[in-house]
Amino acid sequence: MTQPALWVAAASSLLLVVVSQRVLRLVVLAIQYAAVAILSSIAIPGPIAAVKLVGGLIACGILGLTSSALRPDEEPQERPARGRFRAVAAVLVLVAALGIGQTNWMEIPEISLAANSGATLLIAMGLLLIGLARTPIGVCVGLMTLLSGFEISYSVIEPSLAVLALLASVHIGLALVVSYLNLLTGLLEVEP
Description:
globular
């Protein structure tokens, strides 16, 4: 079950880099949270790993509510060359991260190969998303992806429910801050 979750995490992180529509990105991010919960369930019990899924879905819902309040013309238009560059960069980072993830470069003794590859992949793709972001939601999606990769590896070290709930609240807090910034900038642009 964990190997398909690794491929879902890889495909979703690749789509997050390539796709520019806000609603589609949030749907893909929600799918990525499901893969993260499955990869985390390697080291912790399933119901405790579900905290990651619930926290991620709440964060996606908050960002989705804000995205529906914004005007459709606020989304920056993508040029074809920019989309191709993003696709090539995403594939290169994906291949490099999966290659690095085959070794235990984090020196965590109990981590499985699928969890290590998933964590490495999400950390690398999160960094790429942050570097390519042009909007606050783009930066937020990159930070959430990066933190999801960190959480997969950290759940092996500290599998307590309190820590997982705290990390889930970080995702929700990020969504709230970015939603507030989006609404604030949207209100400022409307005023004369």
